[in-house]
Amino acid sequence: MIGEVTGIRKIRMLYLQLLYRCNFACLHCFHGERLQYADVFAADEAISLLALMRDQYATEAVTLLGGEPFVYRDLPQVVRHAKEELGQRVEICTNGYRIERRLTEIAPHLDLLRVSLEGVGSTNDGIRRHGSYQSALNTLSLAQDLGVAAGATMTVTSRNIGEVLPLARILAQLGVKQLKLHHLRPVGNAAGHPELQVTDPAAYGRLREELHSVELPLEVIVDEDLSEHGSPEVCAPSGVPREIDRIEADPRGALTMSCKAVGKDSHAFWYEKTAGCIVHRPSATDELILSVPDVVYARV
To answer: Over the stretch 143-163, which tens digit does the pLDDT of each residue have?
Structure first.
């Protein structure tokens, strides 16, 4: 259905939100009140969607996320099936909080573990959860011991923009190979915390200068909205690309192609779980009608 409507024939990665439930309630989380929702992908529904995406759109990779994917009961089953039965690259994005036992269980089937951090020490814990910083570092250390490649993500806010370089150096010592920096979007919990917004766009320029001025032992990927003028308006889903990098499925089955539309109910497509198919449900505010551009990332 996506191909018929948009002309897209290949989607490299599926971002699969297995559930909304999370053991955190981070100040910047785009889910907001949906963290309390009970919607979830049953294991067979998740596996069916993975197979559909591989067969119809040559999807070669999946990132499993939530909510918090490690509180999802059937995580090992989904990970093993994606890797062993479908031959997909499997990544997980997690808060890394007390996941040692389950991480050890799925490590042989995991290609990348990406842990979210929002600064160093109390800066992170003030945004995420008390004790989460040390727990995340413990998880990254365990990943290195297990031979699992590790990355990290950070949403740049007014509280942590000065801690990007210190955090990057700490992560590199733990074997982390990549730090991905996101722009804060005022949806979900972030809409209720305007103090997290970076109000001086020149601060992004200073951050970039700092990143360019030092040689870091890990790769830094930056959301191009982290600049004084924002990112170029490119990669709009309403164009005619034959391939796109990703599509995201939320726990209800709503599909979103642009990260800038996630959390805004701007989806034009749904995965019907019971029927096992993707359907087109256009609206006046969907990402195709509004030509919502995708996020542009660049290496520093």
So the answer is: 999 999 999 999 999 999 999
Q: Can you give the residue ranges of every domain in the chain?
A: 2-299
Amino acid letter for position 189: N
Q: Which residues, in sequence order, are CB contacts of 197 under 8 Å at separation 6+?
A: 157, 158, 184, 186
Q: Which are the contacts of 161, defined by CB distance < 8 A and separation ≥ 6?
A: 198, 203, 207
- Measured between alpha carbons, how far is 120 from 111 in angstroms, rounded to an integer? 26
At which residue do the structure tokens 């002309």 appear?
7
CB-based burial label for 216 (10 Å; 0-12, 13-18, 19+): middle
DSSP reduced 3-state for 103 = helix
**Pairwise CA distance, residues 247 & 255, whole Å:** 7
User: Which residues lie closer than 8 Å to 5 by C-beta, 6 or more apart?
Assistant: 268, 269, 280, 288
| CATH T-level topology, domain 2-299 | TIM Barrel (3.20.20)
pLDDT in tens, 24-59: 999 999 999 999 999 999 999 999 999 999 999 999
What are 85's two structure tokens?
Answer: 């039965």
Count of C-beta atoms within a 10 Å radius of residue 221: 15
Cα–Cα distance for residue pair 186/183, rounded to 1 Å:
10
The answer to whether residues 237 and 257 touch, using CB atoms and an 8 Å cutoff, is yes
Structure tokens at 98: 């007390």
Residues 6 or more apart in contact with residue 204 via CB below 8 angstroms: 156, 198, 226, 227, 228
